[in-house]
């Protein structure tokens, strides 16, 4: 009797929280079409992942009431999202953290109720909700790191072509903004062109070239790219010969790429020796097996 009296209020509270979050979700889904239409007309911010999953109301509620608590985590994820190229529709760090907390809360409530109904134990249901409810949030926290690393690798692969094209256009007496624009047109839909487009937008809005390059530096994590960008900023400040500076870095980067390719080929040769030997031995055994069997059955051994 005591167990039932204790279980009933907790089940009612869990059901009430689930109903409240579900109502928020339905309300945001119903308002998603006006949000998209307003952003399409240029009014208001474009919808991001928070709007797409219909969690704008609980996320804004969490930000409004618990910003001092979650702002530290928001700043950490903000840097990751910047380096990842602002995925998920340009969501901010504090929005992303709030969305993870809301999804964890929903997962905890729903899974606790389901496991409690399935096992008949409220304690077991709560334990299962705590254990499995936060898994989606942990996964999407890791996803931000993966996107950051993937973008870093993409920019590292695309940067040598960018540098060669800039050097070639600079030799043709083009200005640096013209060289950047030519690259953006020559390599659309790439990670490097997205960053260059942002630099060109900053310059068009009145930001100086040096400041635009400094902003680019804060969005890049690839070390070889940062080395060139910092050299360009220093060269613009000191008034150095831009063409010679870029040409020197292009030669250095080309040498590093050849050196890296040589090391990779040597590693590949070392790794392929053992499989190749096993294949040769297997072929020899396959060819000699009938003769060995015949000699064994004839009594020669």
Automatic annotation (TrEMBL):
Keyword set includes DNA-binding: no
Domain Type II secretion system protein GspF residue range list: 162-290
Protein origin, superkingdom: Bacteria
Membrane topology classification: Multi-pass membrane protein
Cellular compartments annotated: Cell membrane
Matching Pfam families: T2SSF
Keywords: Cell membrane, Membrane, Transmembrane, Transmembrane helix
Transmembrane segments: 6-27, 96-116, 122-144, 272-293
CC terms in the record's Gene Ontology section: plasma membrane
The keyword Transmembrane is annotated on this UniProt entry: yes
InterPro entries found in the cross-reference section: T2SS_GspF_dom
Protein name per its UniProtKB record: Tight adherence protein C
Organism from which the protein derives: Rhizobium lusitanum
Species lineage: Bacteria, Pseudomonadati, Pseudomonadota, Alphaproteobacteria, Hyphomicrobiales
């Amino acid at each position: 009797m005591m167990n039932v009296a204790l279980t009933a209020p907790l089940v009612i509270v869990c059901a009430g929280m689930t109903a409240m979050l579900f109502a928020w979700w339905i309300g945001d889904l119903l308002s998603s079409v006006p949000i998209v239409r307003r952003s399409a007309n240029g009014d208001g911010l474009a919808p991001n992942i928070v709007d797409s999953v219909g969690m704008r109301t609980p996320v804004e509620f969490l930000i409004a009431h618990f910003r001092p608590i979650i702002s530290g985590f928001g700043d950490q994820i903000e840097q990751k999202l910047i380096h990842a190229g602002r995925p998920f529709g340009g969501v901010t760090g504090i929005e992303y953290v709030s969305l993870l907390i809301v999804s964890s809360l929903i997962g905890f409530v729903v899974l606790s109720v389901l496991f409690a109904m399935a096992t008949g134990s409220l304690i077991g249901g709560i334990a299962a909700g705590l254990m499995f409810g936060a898994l989606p949030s942990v996964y999407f926290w890791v996803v931000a790191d993966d996107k950051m690393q993937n973008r870093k690798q993409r920019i590292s692969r695309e940067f040598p072509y960018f540098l060669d094209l800039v050097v070639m256009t600079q030799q043709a007496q083009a200005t640096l903004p013209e060289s950047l624009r030519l690259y953006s047109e020559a390599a659309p839909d790439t990670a490097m062109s997205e960053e260059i487009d942002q630099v060109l937008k900053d310059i068009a809005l009145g930001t100086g070239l040096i400041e635009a390059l400094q902003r680019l530096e804060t969005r890049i994590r690839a070390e070889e790219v940062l080395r060139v960008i910092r050299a360009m900023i220093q060269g613009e400040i000191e008034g150095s010969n831009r063409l010679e500076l870029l040409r020197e870095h292009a030669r250095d980067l080309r040498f590093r790429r050849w050196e890296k390719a040589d090391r990779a080929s040597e590693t590949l040769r070392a790794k392929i020796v053992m499989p190749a030997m096993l294949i040769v031995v297997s072929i020899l055994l396959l060819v000699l097996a009938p003769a060995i069997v015949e000699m064994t059955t004839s009594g020669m051994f």
